[in-house]
Amino acid sequence: MLADMISNSQYNIGHICTRRQCEAGLGDKLAMRWVSSRFERRDYTFADLDRSSNRFANLLQGLGLEAGAVLFTYLPKSVEQFFAFLGSLKACCITGTLFSNFGEDALLDRLGDSRARLVVTRKSLYRKIERIRGQLPDLKLVILTDVAEHQSEDVLSWERLMAEASEEFTTPRTTADTPSVLHYTSGSTGKPKGVLHRHGSILQQSRTTRDVLGLLPDDLYWCTADQGWVTGTSYGIIGPWSLGVSQVHFAGGYGAEHWLELLQNEEITVWYTAPTALRMLMREEASLFGGYDLSHLRAIFSVGEPLNPEVIGWGRAILAKDIFDTWFQTETGAIMIANRPDTPIRPGSMGKPFPGIEAAILADDGAPLGAGEQGNLCVRAGWDSMFVTYLNNASAYGSKFKNGWYHTGDMAWRDGDGYYWFLGRSDDVINTSGHLVSPFEVESALLELPEIAESGVIGAPDELLFERVVAFVHFHSGIEFTPELELKIRLHIANRLSSVAIPQEVLPVEAVPKNKSGKIMRRVLKARYLGLDAGDISTLEE
To answer: How are beta strands 270-273 and 246-250 bridged, if at all?
Structure first.
């Protein structure tokens, strides 16, 4: 048990996931099987993880990064991601991960707000940072993982620095409240907010990995999430390695045959993925699955968006497996509510709260609501992996807590047996393929284009993506909406924000509805798009 591995107040995540495993006799055990996009395999033991993360911790100290300094990885799926993440936590730096598809605006918002001192990236991705670096006075150093020599005094070679660093490192005593991981999350208004966690989060991440995902010492586990997202760090790094469990990490993207081959050939026992991926698999011919032996696969778990009952039925019929839905947020840091193998599944439900987690459905005034009543999904504050602040935004953090309850921003209801059922967001944030997209950010990026006078962005129901991004644009006089202009719009959003934020539909409109104070009325846009009653429109500007 992890509690047995916490001694002398040493809660350091990097230390527990590597050195502590070695001290427990697991140094020679497989920690990570790295499978490239071409299916080339490399194995790393816990001792390998320990040595490489030690080297990174030492090189950070050699570069002058003290405890509490902020750094980010901005990498595609790669082994360097794991060494840098664990090593920077050993050095007690605040460690963030950036999705490799982020564009310049998304990078500028996150690196600027956090005052990041260092970024680990690749040469091709550095070009985006280079274009905005003049606006990042705190960014002093960049490390490139794919160059053999230093490029300049402040653009350095990973290979050379790691070769020169010692593989011996003594992790400083790290309390539970020491800041650890930083992820940014989108809201319906304003810039992304930096969700800061602490090293003590490992307690909740480890418990849920053991008691929800059910990982056992001899399991081989695969989490498909990118490390740019909280699932990829909480359950693709911290949870399993805190328990000494072996993982597969695959550098390739989605491909039905590739994924099935991986599940079969590696004899994976527990698989954690996303509903969008499962819905994509559902579109394949049923005969495809008969060609693969998945008998070793004990459990499948899903996260990121609600899991349709149809997916659960498909899993039972085609894979002969149950699929268990789990719910958590960047802010919660670990699973809060879940369907678990020891509890009957109610298809379509979020499941029940994890033991020790107190959840409730509350009215807007904070009054508790009974079974069957719809309201705000809230969690009693104080769990181990609860975020400690929104970086540089204490007022936004405070607004999430009322009378001891964390308000998640999700709407739900609870049935008479204690199962929770997701209804939607209480704000306008779009959940597309499990990733939260801010309509405000997309609207702002659209207005950078000289052809566009006004923009409004909503999420609309989608059978595959759960929600798709729909952009309504009002063009300046004389502008004709052409396929070429639509392509320009899509590319602009990809370059400024990310490929996840690209609108699936771009719809020209005569005007974007706003209220008298100038706020975009997204609910009106959504109602019109879906053919529903827009409700009270008395505040619309004339």
So the answer is: unpaired
Q: Give domain 430-530's CATH superfamily.
A: ANL, C-terminal domain (3.30.300.30)
Would you mind telling me the total number of residues written for the chain in this entry?
542
Cα separation, 256 vs 254, in Å, equals 7
Place of tokens 């940072």: 129
**Which residue is associated with the tokens 């009693």?**
380
Q: Is residue 538's pLDDT more than 50?
A: no
Name the residue among 43, 498, 462 with its Cα closest to residue 246: 43
**Where exactly does CATH 3.40.50.12780 map onto the chain?**
1-200, 254-427
Beta bridge partners of 34: 42, 249
- Could you count the other beta carbons within 10 Å of the beta carbon of residue 197? 30
Angstrom distance (rounded) from CA 324 to CA 320: 13
Which tens digits make up the pLDDT trace of 256-301? 999 999 999 999 999 999 998 999 999 899 999 999 999 999 999 9
Specify the DSSP element, H or E, that contains 20. Answer: helix 19-21
- Residues 113 and 410: their CA atoms lie apart, in Å, by 26
CA angle 165, 171, 174 (to 5 degrees): 145
